[in-house]
Amino acid sequence: MRKTAKVDDNEFLRSDGSNLAAFLYYLHEAHQESYGLIRRTVQRVAPFFDDFRLRPLKLKRDDIKLEWRHKESDQYFDASSLSDGTLRFIVLTTLFLQPKSYRPSAILVDEPELGLHPYAIGMLASLIRQASVETQVIVSTQSSLLLDHFQPEDVLVANRVEGGTDITRPDEKQLAGWLEEYSLGQLWEKNELGGRPVRG
Hints:
The protein has a three-stranded antiparallel beta sheet. The protein has a two-stranded antiparallel sheet with strand order 1-3. It has a two-stranded parallel sheet with strand order 6-7. The protein has a domain at 5-107. The chain starts with a strand and ends in an 11-residue tail after the last helix. It is elongated. The protein is α+β, with helices and mostly antiparallel strands. It has helices at residues 20-30, 32-45, 84-97, 118-132, 144-147, 172-175, 184-189; strands at 5-6, 49-53, 63-64, 67-70, 76-78, 106-110, 136-140, 157-161, 164-168.
């Protein structure tokens, strides 16, 4: 993501985000509505961010790199000046807000909350819920903050059982009383949902 990419590598967003600049450039040129939504969402989490600066490199017209402009300034920066969390949020925002026709039939993301500010985690949860209306989204997490933004019916809990993995859904009726006083994330921290490491 911090390196250059080929301008024409834009058919889909790669799973490692390595063609992020090329894909955003394509959205800017061909899907202004989606691009604008991505830009505004990033601005909500990174108030200093004005817009991406996307154009082929002057001396290598086949290459492009991720650059962005700072608000209230004509200065621009490349991806190396973004924190890991901000860059991760940009990639996830692009993944979940890209046009439906480019979205994969299923999205699997491992611990997307890593490096994100609590406010950004809330925004991420909204993006996940929005995308899941039309696309199957599977997210693995160990974040009680992220879990707090979902309902028991959205959650599957993985437990190690006799060398294998047992997947269960929390019992909403059993949790009803608990949820009057605690959030879902707090219940996970208290091991009321399972899915915690067992130490022998």
